[in-house]
């Protein structure tokens, strides 16, 4: 039997009122699974600021804690401080602190060029009020100079005051176990929650992976390719692959799982139910 560990769900802010209404329904459905928290992404440089705030307002105070993502690249300290104060006044006590990626064409790193600078700034500005989550990359951040440098940069981020981490999605559990082991050897033992990307559509998955530097193992790519447009087979195969991945992660000591929901109830709900984590 799989050990029961907490789950969290990530949303992105919607662009329309109709989208926001649909997301409220998704939130209600997923809340029935008793997650540890929901999180809402934030466009770098403040590009989704109002929409992220609106989504946070929709979900805050509805029973399950909500954690806004906050990125620092291209933003300034005053605007970030304003958001931190606002979230604190709303009773929010968890933040996902990120560097972000600037949209192409936009230049200027801003006053806080790296996530470690943002974490240090949050601690300086808000003390210990927030539980700070940061991003982790078991398969290495795509812009990192080397795996070792990436690990050292992660350690700087943890030492700046991060409480825990959420990973980029991956399909190779050994990458995660190696990453966590390396951190432990360096004396860093903050919980690192694997980020889980459900598989429902081959081309979308390949696009996300290409955009984030995550690897889709050859056997998964090949298998998906054989299904062509057969969506039912892709979903059935994807479900089996992700359940097995989660089972291995849980058996190997993952402290919790963070689901990239893509703003959908399914297959997130079914995955959590089949893993016995509801
Ligand atoms: P950092 O930790 O700053 O690392 C970025 C790169 O810089 C790495 O290669 C690192 O090795 C290197 N680095 C770090 N410090 C230094 C230093 N001092 N000197 C030289 N190099 C250094 N993006 C968004 O825009 N909005 C979101 O809401 C969002 N949510 C995310 C949620 C999760 C769980 C994850 C995994 C990613 C998310 N992202 C989001 C994407 C993220 O912003 C990008 O991956 C971004 O490129 C890196 O962000 P980071 O916080 O990991 O940056």
Topology (SSEs and partners):
Blueprint: E1 7-11, H1 17-31, E2 37-40, H2 49-59, E3 66-71, H3 77-89, E4 94-98, H4 115-126, E5 131-136, H5 147-159, E6 164-169, H6 173-185, E7 192-196, H7 202-212, H8 218-227, H9 231-251, E8 257-260, H10 268-274
Parallel strand pairs: 1-2, 1-8, 2-3, 3-4, 4-5, 5-6, 6-7, 7-8
The site of flavin-adenine dinucleotide has 25 residues, from strand 3, strand 4, helix 4, helix 5 and strand 6.
Describe what this molecule looks like in 3D.
By secondary structure, the chain is of the alpha/beta class. The protein has a single domain (7-274), classed as TIM Barrel. The protein contains ten helices and eight strands. It has helices at residues 17-31, 49-59, 77-89, 115-126, 147-159, 173-185, 202-212, 218-227, 231-251, 268-274, and strands spanning 7-11, 37-40, 66-71, 94-98, 131-136, 164-169, 192-196, 257-260. The protein has an eight-stranded parallel barrel with strand order 1-2-3-4-5-6-7-8, surrounded by five helices. β4 (94-98), α4 and β5 (131-136) form a beta-alpha-beta unit. α4 (115-126) runs parallel beside α5 (147-159). It is globular and about 50 Å long. The structure holds flavin-adenine dinucleotide. The site of flavin-adenine dinucleotide has 25 residues, from β3, β4, α4, α5 and β6. Flavin-adenine dinucleotide (FAD) binds at residues 41-44, 69, 71, 96, 98-101, 114-116, 135, 141, 143-144, 149-150, 153, 157, 166, 168, 195. Belongs to the methylenetetrahydrofolate reductase family. Its EC number is 1.5.1.54. It catalyses: (6S)-5-methyl-5,6,7,8-tetrahydrofolate + NAD(+) = (6R)-5,10-methylene-5,6,7,8-tetrahydrofolate + NADH + H(+). InterPro entries: FAD-linked_oxidoreductase-like, Mehydrof_redctse-like, MTHF_reductase_bac.
């Amino acid at each position: 039997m799989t050990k029961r560990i907490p789950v969290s769900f990530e949303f992105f802010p919607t662009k329309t009122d109709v989208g926001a209404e649909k997301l409220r329904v998704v939130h209600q459905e997923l809340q029935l699974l008793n997650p540890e928290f929901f999180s809402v992404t934030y466009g770098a440089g403040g590009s989704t600021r109002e929409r992220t705030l609106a989504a946070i307002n929709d979900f805050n105070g509805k029973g399950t804690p909500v954690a806004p993502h906050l990125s620092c690249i291209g933003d300034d300290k005053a605007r970030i401080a304003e958001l931190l104060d606002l979230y604190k006044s709303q009773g929010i006590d968890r933040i996902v602190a990120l560097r972000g990626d600037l949209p192409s064409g936009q230049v200027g790193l801003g006053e806080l060029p790296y996530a470690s600078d943002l974490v240090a700034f949050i601690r300086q500005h808000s003390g210990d009020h927030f539980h700070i989550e940061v991003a982790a990359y078991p398969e290495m951040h795509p812009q990192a100079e080397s795996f070792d440098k990436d690990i050292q940069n992660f350690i700087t981020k943890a030492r700046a005051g991060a409480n825990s981490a959420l990973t980029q999605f991956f399909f190779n559990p050994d990458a995660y176990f190696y990453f966590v082991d390396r951190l432990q050897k360096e004396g860093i033992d903050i919980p690192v929650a694997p980020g889980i990307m459900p598989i429902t559509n081959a081309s979308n998955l390949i696009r996300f992976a290409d955009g984030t530097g995550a690897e889709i193992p050859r056997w998964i790519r090949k298998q998906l390719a054989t299904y062509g447009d057969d969506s039912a087979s892709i979903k059935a195969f994807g479900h089996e692959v992700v359940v097995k991945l989660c089972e291995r992660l849980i058996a190997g000591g993952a402290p919790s799982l963070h689901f990239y929901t893509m703003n959908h109830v399914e297959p997130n709900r079914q995955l959590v139910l089949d893993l016995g984590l509801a």
